[in-house]
Amino acid sequence: MADQSRHSYQRNQSGFTLVEIMVSIVILGVGLLGLTGLQMSGLKNTQTATQTRLSTLLAYDMVERMQSNPYSVEQESYNNVTGASHTCSRSTPCSADDQAELDMYQWSAELASKLPLGTGVVCIDSTPTRDDTPSTPACDGSGDVYTIKLWWDRDASGAISNSTSDADDARDLPLIITVQL
Q1: Quick one: CA torsion of 179, 166, 154, 107, rounded to 10 degrees?
Q2: Whole-structure pTM value
Q3: What residues form DSSP beta bridges with 121?
Q4: What whole-number distance in Å separates Cα of residue 181 and Cα of residue 179?
Q5: 3-state class of 120 per DSSP?
Q6: Of 143, 64, 54, nearest to 103 (Cα)?
Q7: Which is nearest to 120 in space by CA: 78, 74, 166?
Q8: How far apart are CA 159 and CA 116, in angstroms?
Q9: CA 74 to mean position of chain CA atoms
Q10: Is a pLDDT exceeding 80 seen at residue 19?
């Protein structure tokens, strides 16, 4: 008789134990944390790609400005020019040098407004390197190739860091475009 009651008890047992439920909750939680990490990584990569695309468009905007002012390019007016605001109109047009300063002024304002800590330089540089910084763009001034260098805060650290001691993914390397006009 005792043998019969033991078998009936085993047949009536169904469902999950508390331990099985707890293990499945832990496994589900770890999986959801992994998915959250993937989502965050995807968002960061999307933001980086968007900023890189925008910086490329802004660099080519400066190339187009230079192409529309060939005299200033020949006179090297765009070489390390600091931007200045000029009031030009049809009745009082800008000189070629004033137009180069105005182009740099407007372009620098666009960089600052569209990229985090965005800054850039246009210079003649026969040996452009990626180790430049905004404060020391390292333009040698020789040759006839213009180089457009853009920096921005890629890693959202609040500063532009190009130190070689940083990890490769933490460096804010410049976008460099060379143009021979």
Answers
A1: -40
A2: 0.73
A3: 149
A4: 6
A5: strand
A6: 64
A7: 78
A8: 9
A9: 31
A10: yes
